[in-house]
């Protein structure tokens, strides 16, 4: 009786240790994410967003656009921005020249343009107007809040 109790306790202890190690490893991976995992095609990105119930962040950019390159080098390299986007959004970087039709459908005529859409890409949640560090984080939080409100409205069946 005692040996099986000891073995059971050891198994429970080892499984708890394993679970703790796995959680810590996952947390380390998340906290050490050093870059944004951009999607470059709206179709697959939309599937990911719908599956994970996360809003889409669309970043229309161009190789010839100086301000776009500046946003990529500064804001999109900020660790807090990387964390926020990785945790709460499906980030999609779209080249304006390659996606002109989509840009025109969304009334985008200048770059950089950053907007947040609901997961099904059918509604604009927020258009980002400030890309400087902490202000950009606030804009993302506003979009996240609007996504939460939209989900609540859909759940309760209320309309605005």
Describe the protein.
The chain has 160 residues and is of the alpha+beta class. It folds into two domains: 1-32; 36-156, Glutaredoxin, CATH 3.40.30. Helices cover 56% and strands 14% of the residues. It is built from six helices and four strands. The protein has helices spanning 2-31, 42-52, 66-73, 79-88, 100-105, 133-156, and strands spanning 56-61, 90-95, 113-117, 124-128. It has a four-stranded mixed beta sheet with strand order 2-1-3-4, sandwiched between helices. Strand 3 (113-117) and strand 4 (124-128) form a beta hairpin. Helix 4 (79-88) runs parallel beside helix 6.
Helical content (DSSP H or I, runs of 4+): 55-70%
Low-pLDDT runs of 5+ residues are: 8-20, 22-31
Number of domains: 2
User: What's the main sheet like?
Assistant: 4 strands, mixed
**What is the CATH domain class of the largest domain?**
Alpha Beta
**Into which percentage range does the β-strand content fall?**
5-15%
Number of strands: 4
Q: Helix- and strand-based class?
A: alpha+beta
Average predicted confidence as pLDDT? 82
At the fold tier of CATH, the topology name of the largest domain is Glutaredoxin
Assign the CATH architecture of the largest domain: 3-Layer(aba) Sandwich
Cα distance spanning the termini: 64 Å
H/E topology pattern: HHEHHEHEEH
Signal peptide: 1-19
Protein name: Thiol:disulfide interchange protein
Keywords: Redox-active center, Signal
InterPro entries: AGR/TXD (IPR051099), Thioredoxin-like_sf (IPR036249), Thioredoxin_CS (IPR017937)
């Amino acid at each position: 009786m005692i040996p099986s109790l000891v073995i059971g306790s050891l198994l429970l202890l080892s499984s708890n240790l394993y679970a703790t190690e796995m959680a810590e490893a996952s947390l380390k991976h998340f906290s050490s994410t050093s870059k944004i995992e951009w999607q470059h095609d709206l179709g697959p990105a939309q599937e990911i967003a719908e599956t994970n119930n996360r809003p889409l962040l669309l970043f229309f950019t161009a190789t010839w656009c100086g301000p776009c390159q500046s946003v990529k080098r500064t804001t999109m390299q900020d660790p807090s921005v990387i964390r926020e986007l990785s945790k709460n959004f499906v980030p999609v970087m779209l080249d304006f020249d390659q996606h002109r039709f989509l840009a025109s459908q969304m009334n985008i005529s200048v770059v950089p343009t950053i907007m947040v859409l609901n997961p099904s890409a059918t509604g604009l949640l927020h258009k980002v107007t400030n890309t400087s560090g902490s202000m950009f984080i606030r804009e993302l939080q506003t979009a996240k809040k609007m996504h939460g409100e939209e989900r609540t409205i859909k759940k309760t069946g209320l309309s605005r």
